[in-house]
Amino acid sequence: MTAQAEIRVVVGAGGVGKTTVAAALAVALADAGHRTLVMTFDPSRRLKDTLGIGERALADEVPVAHCGGRLHASLLDARQTFDGLIDRYAPDAAVRQRILGNRYYRHLAGSLAGILEYMAAEKLFEIVQAGSYERLVLDTPPVSQALDLLEAPERIVRFLDSGAVQFATRPWFDAAGRLKATRRMGRLGRRLEDYLDGLVGLDLLRDLVEFFTAFKPLFEGFRARAREVGSLLRRPSTCFDLVTTASEDRTHDTLFFARRLRESGLRLGSIAVNRLHPWPGSGAAGSPVLARLASAVADRERRALASVRELLGGSVPLVTLPLLAEEPVAIAGLRELAGRFEAS
Amino acid sequence: MRDDFWASLPPLVVVTGKGGVGKTVVSCALARAAVGAGLRVLLLELDARESLHRFLGCSPSGGGVIRVAPGLAAENVRPRAVVDRLIGERVRPAWVARRLIKSVIYEQFVQGAPGLREVAALGYAIRATGRGPLAAPGLGRAGPGAAGEAGGHDLVLLDAPATGHGVSLLLAPRLLSEAIGGGPIAALATEVAAVVGDPAACGLWAVSTAEGMALRETLELDAALRGGLGRGLDLLAVNRLLPDAGAEPAGVEEWEAVWRRRAAGERDRLAKLAGAWRGPLLRLPLSGHEGPAAVAELAAALREA
C-alpha cells in the first residue's frame, strides 16, 4: 500500500555524517523486517562499497547484501531527475528537444537555487507512488540551511505563479530574434534595442524567454506535482531526523533548524548527535598528550550536549552516536551504529 | 610560516573545502597569522548566516566592514546587495536603476539567473584587492563597504562555501560568460573568470580533515577546478590532526585505543595522499578549544609551520 510507506528524512549541515547515519537507520529498519529503500547523495566510496552500490544505483534501486533481501539503495542525481520530469511532462518530442537543447537549461538550470533539493523530493514522490517499499530513508544534500528541501516545492510553485514567468513568456522577440517592441520604431527603436543589449545582454534574455516559453506547457503538471511533493513531506507518517555534532558552534544551527521544522508543521523524529569522541576514563592514560586533548574535547562536547538538552527541554528524543575508530566497511559496522541508534 | 610565504601570496585567496572540516576557523587563523606577519588583511564571508564574529570575538558585520584588530577587517558579503549596487552604478539615469531594482522581473532575474550572485560576490572580492581591471574606475563609483577602500589591504581572504557550492562559485564566472553572449554582465563574468583562472591573481586553498571522505572530496575538487578552470588548488590545509602519541603501551583503556586507531588511520591516509597531492600541505592540530581560542591556537601553529 503506497499510502502506508513511512518516510525518514535525514537532514543536517555538511560534514556531520548524515549519509552514514541514513545508511545505518535503513539497516535497522530492514533488520526490523520492513522492505526499505535508502536514497543517498554522493556517499563516500567506502559507504558505496559497504552498501554494494555502483553507478548502476543511479538508474536503479539495487539490493544490499546481508540484509535479508529487504534493503535496497539508490543514488540521487538532480540532473537526471530533472531530465526525467521534462520527459514526462513535455507534450511532444519537439518541445522536449527544445528544452533539453536550450542553452540556459543546459548550462544553468541545473544549478538553479533549490533544484537539487526539489529533485530529491521529486524522486521521493516517484518512489512512494511506485509503492514497492514500506520504509524510505532519504539522505539530503549538504546545505548550510537544511530548510531548502522543505521550501523547494513551495518556491517552485511561487516562481511558476509569479507574474515574471507570464511576463517573460510574452512574445517579445520576432522570428529573427529582434525585439518586437522596438522594431516598429525605426532607427530610434534600433538604438533602444542596442541600449538594452548593452545593459543586460539580450542573448541571455532570448535564452531565458525561449526556455520559459518551451517550458510553459509543462507548468500545470509541474505545479500540481510540486504541491503533491510538498504535502508528502507534511504527512504524519513522514518524520525528520536531524543529525548534528556536539560542538558549540553547531548548537545554535541545530536548535534553529529544530524550531523551524516544528513551525512549518513538520515532525521532528529525533536529534542524533553524531561522532562523539570517546571520553577518557579515570585511569592513567598511556599518553599524557592524548589524555589532555581528550579531556578538553570531552569537556567541550559535554557542554554542547548539555546546552542542546537544556534548550530542547526533552521534547525530542536525543540520540548520541559514537565516533567510530574507522568508517564502517561492512554492513556489520552500520548495524553496530544502528544498534546504538535504536537502543537510545 | 616564514614571512616570505606571506609576501609571495596573490592579492586574493579563496578558501574552500568540504562542509564541517573547520573552513571558517582555519580562514580566521590564516587571517590572524597573516596579520602577525605584517599584512593588512580583509576577511570576507559569503554565508548569509554570519559566523566570523563568533571566531574573531567581534560584533557581527551586518553587511558592513568590521575592524577586528589593527590590520584585520572582516565583512559579510551580501551578493544580492552587490548586484543591486552594480546595477545602480551601471544603469543611467539613476531613476531607471531605482525602478529596475524594485521590479518583479528584476527580482526573478537576480534570483533565477544562476551564477549572477556568485560572479558579483567574486567581483566584489577582486575589487577589494585594489588591483587589476575590476578595481579600475571603469566599474563606477565604489559603494559602501570594503570596496570603498580598495587598495587598503595586502590580502583579501574569502571564506567560500563548502565544496559543492564552492565549485559552483568558482566555475560560475566561466559558465556565465559562456552561457550569455554579450552585455556588461557577460563582460564582468569574463573579467572575473580571468582573475579566478590566474594563480598569480587568485590563490585557491582547500581545507580538509584527514578523514577518507574529506580527502577524496578535496582531490575531486582539485580535479574539477583543473577541468573547469585549467588550474587546480594551490595549497591544502589538513585540519584537526590528532597528535602522534608514539607506540601504544599494553593495556590502554578503550577510549585511548580508539583515539590511537584514528590517529594511525590519519597517518596512513596522509602517507597515501603524497602520491595524489604534490602541492604544499599545511598540517593543523585538533584544537581542544572552540571559537577565538581555537583560532589563536591554529594561528600559532601556522606561524610555526
Report on the architecture of this protein.
The complex is a heterodimer of chains A (about 350) and B (about 300). Chain A is α/β, with parallel strands linked by helices and about 350 residues long. Chain A is built from 15 helices and 8 strands. The longest helix of chain A is centred in the C-terminal third of the chain and has 25 residues, at about 290-310. Chain B has an 8-stranded mixed beta sheet with strand order 3-4-2-5-1-6-7-8, sandwiched between helices. Chain B is elongated and about 80 Å long. The model of chain B is unreliable at about 135-150 (pLDDT under 50). With about 300 residues, chain B is an alpha/beta fold. Chain B starts with a helix and ends with a helix. Chain B has helices at about 5, 25-35, 50-55, 80-90, 95-100, 105-110, 115-130, 165-180, 185-195, 210-230, 255-275, 290-305; strands spanning about 10-15, 40-45, 65-70, 70-75, 155-160, 200-210, 235-240, 280-285. In chain B, α4 (about 80-90) packs across α7. Chains A and B meet through α5, α8, α10, α11 and α13 of A and α6, α8, α9, α10 and α11 of B.
